[in-house]
Amino acid sequence: MAVALVLPACGVGDIGAPVEGTVFVSVQDTVFLPESLTVQQGGSVRWTNDGKILHSVVQDSGKWQSPLMSPTSWFDVRFDSLGTFSYHCSLHPQMIGTIIVQ
Asked: What domain range includes position 66?
């Protein structure tokens, strides 16, 4: 069973510096960029809302989710288990992405 550890990190602007080696995903108004990425086990991903409207990041099975993120807000997740994690925006379900942890 794949498990991700959700860091208690969600903020606006540069309030929280990302941990070294963090991989970044830009949340645009119609897409996550990149839509798919691979990280090493124990690695972190930071989603930043670079769009103009509210978005969220919700793991498809509900194991983790961000609050609604206003523009410039961010959300971090550290992935401690191997696996493939699909996610979407709760407000815009056509926005989908995948994190592969190796």
From this structure: 1-10+53-102
